[in-house]
Specification:
Blueprint lengths: L1 H14 L5 H23 L6 H21 L10 H13 L4 E8 L2 H8 L1 H18 L5 E5 L2 E7 H4 L2 H13 L2 E3 L2 E3 L3 E8 L6 H17 L5 E3 L2 H21 L7 E9 L4 E10 L10 H10 L3 H21 L6 E5 L2 H5 L3 H11 L7 E6 H5 L2 H13 L3 E7 L6 H6 L4 E4 L1 H9 L1 H15 L4 E4 L5 H9 L4 E2 L10 H9 L7
Parallel strand pairs: 6-7, 9-10, 10-11, 11-12, 12-13, 13-14, 14-15
Antiparallel strand pairs: 1-3, 1-6, 2-3, 4-5, 8-9, 8-15
Length: 496
């Protein structure tokens, strides 16, 4: 037992600041317990306590510090994310004042590409060692693969600016791993508790948001949480609560608007894109570029996508009943929708529910969805294509723009992003590239649809490259279903 006590003390000294209060209590108590057992054994030699005491001690050690041992990152020796949540919660319960600093190594993907996935772990460990060499004796946590968090008490936080600068200077140096130079790009965020965050969840969100602000800043890679960050997190929570409520309500306030798409040859509107809106809430209209990313982050996007698909198919059914001549309505699918196992069943079930011809529904897929899920997307497109549903490659020109995807997958329409159109208006080189791409796809019987056309000059450009369809404010803005019907009927036509 004395040997066990010695090992405990040695481990505590070796781990330094990583030794928790619970372990320190056990280290202080264990020698006393060992001495008492030996004393009893000495005076009661007929009673054999050594084995029983040892077993009991081991059980005590496991129950008392087992959780502390489990949540240690094997690469860096820092605590894990679960320990961070527990440590913060305990401090907040005691209303202690402290500051949390998050260090985000934001060029992780570049490091993975350079060193490979396995050796990348060693490169991150190298960074962790560098951080630890200049960090005061405070609790450190590996929050994720490339994020580390440190907790400073009130007294230590008085020098937080100097500490952060020291960390930043340390990681700004060039390091070497296996004779290859290593340069870390680091974003640093600091949040004061409980002044700025009074729950572990709120603290984590503020740290993440502040780190992103530091990463995106042109002036500094260090961001101290401010009132704007707090307002952002509060608004995000408000929107999240509204989304959850609306998505769980049969009478939800989500509206589907339709942006009519102009057919160049026929000089009329025959298709439209479905766009979700959330205008009626207690905090006023919430725009898609704000609530859709939140829905994706909070795991709500699949349910939202189902609502848009449902309402779009209902609108298609209305158009058919009203004997309105149109080609199709297109619906955007997120990566989360496409990757669900029952995506084919969900689409076919909704089409059957409203008794609409499958060819009246078109699906828009962004290329980023395809990159990591090629075979799954291909099977899905082939299956739905067999029943008549057609597909758009959406936002072409914003990311990978891999021509092989268009060749290997059954896309019939290419939606060229507005950024390419706007660039072609300003640059002869961009115009030449846009023309070359468009003509190449046209020769493969893939129709070109250009997005974001807002001016007469842009209209002339897309006409010259041979676009079959034009979408943009110059021709039509997103409108409600009844107004969209007027575009299809030819009653309304904003085209100049």
């Amino acid at each position: 037992m004395l040997y066990t006590a010695f090992l405990l003390v040695f481990a505590a000294l070796k781990n330094g600041r990583k030794t928790t209060f619970r372990v320190k209590i056990l280290i202080a108590f264990f020698p006393v317990l060992s001495g008492l057992v030996m004393l009893v054994q000495f005076y009661a030699s007929d009673v054999l306590l050594t084995g029983t005491a040892a077993l009991g001690s081991l059980i005590l050690m496991f129950l008392f510090i087992g959780t502390d041992i489990v949540d240690i990152d094997s690469d860096t020796g820092f605590y894990g994310s679960r320990s961070f949540t527990e440590a913060v919660s305990k401090r907040l319960q005691k209303n202690s004042e402290f500051c949390c600093v998050l260090l985000f190594i934001d060029n992780t993907q570049e490091l993975k590409d350079t060193f490979g996935r396995q050796k990348h772990r060693q490169v991150i460990t190298l960074a962790a060692a560098a951080i630890e060499s200049v960090m005061p004796r405070v609790p450190g946590f590996r929050y994720s693969d490339s994020k580390f968090i440190f907790i400073f008490d009130k007294k230590q936080a008085a020098d937080i600016g100097e500490i952060i600068s020291g960390i930043d200077d340390t990681l700004s140096k060039e390091y070497t791993f296996e004779n290859i130079p290593v340069n870390y790009s680091v974003s640093i965020a600091a949040v004061n508790c409980p002044e700025q965050a009074d729950t572990a969840e709120q603290l984590a969100e503020l740290l993440e948001y502040s780190a992103l602000q530091a990463k995106n800043s042109k002036n500094s890679n260090i961001f101290y949480c401010d009132d704007n960050a707090i307002k952002h997190i509060r608004r995000k929570k408000e929107i999240t609560d509204i989304l959850k409520r609306e998505l769980n309500s049969d009478e939800n306030n989500f509206e589907v608007f339709y942006q009519p798409i102009y057919e160049v040859l026929g000089r009329r509107f025959r298709t439209a894109e479905a766009l979700v809106r959330l205008n009626k809430t207690e905090i006023g209209p919430i725009y898609p570029d704000e609530f859709i990313p939140i829905a994706e982050e909070m795991g709500l996007i699949v349910r939202l996508g189902d609502i848009v698909l449902e309402k779009s198919c209902r609108f298609i059914s209305e158009l058919i009943k009203d004997n309105i001549d149109f080609d199709a309505i297109s619906v955007n699918f997120s990566v989360h929708q496409i990757m669900r196992n029952d995506i084919v069943e969900k689409v076919t079930e909704t089409v059957r529910k409203y008794n609409i011809p499958p060819e009246k529904l078109r699906i828009e897929i962004t290329e980023s969805v395809i990159i990591d899920n090629f075979q799954h997307v291909k099977r899905m497109m082939n299956t739905l294509g067999d029943i008549g549903i057609k597909f758009y490659m959406d936002d072409f020109g914003t990311g990978y723009s891999n021509l092989s995807n268009m060749i290997e997958l059954p896309f019939e329409y290419l939606k060229i992003d507005k950024s390419l159109v706007h660039s072609a208006e300003k640059s002869e080189k961009a115009y030449f590239i846009l023309t070359f791409i468009s003509q190449a796809f046209i020769k493969q019987n893939i129709k070109i649809l250009t997005e974001g056309v807002e001016t007469e000059a842009q209209e002339k450009i897309v006409d010259m490259i041979g676009a079959s369809y034009i979408q943009g404010y110059r021709f039509a803005r997103p409108v409600n279903g009844e107004t969209a019907k007027e575009y299809f009927l030819g009653i309304r036509n904003d085209a100049c």
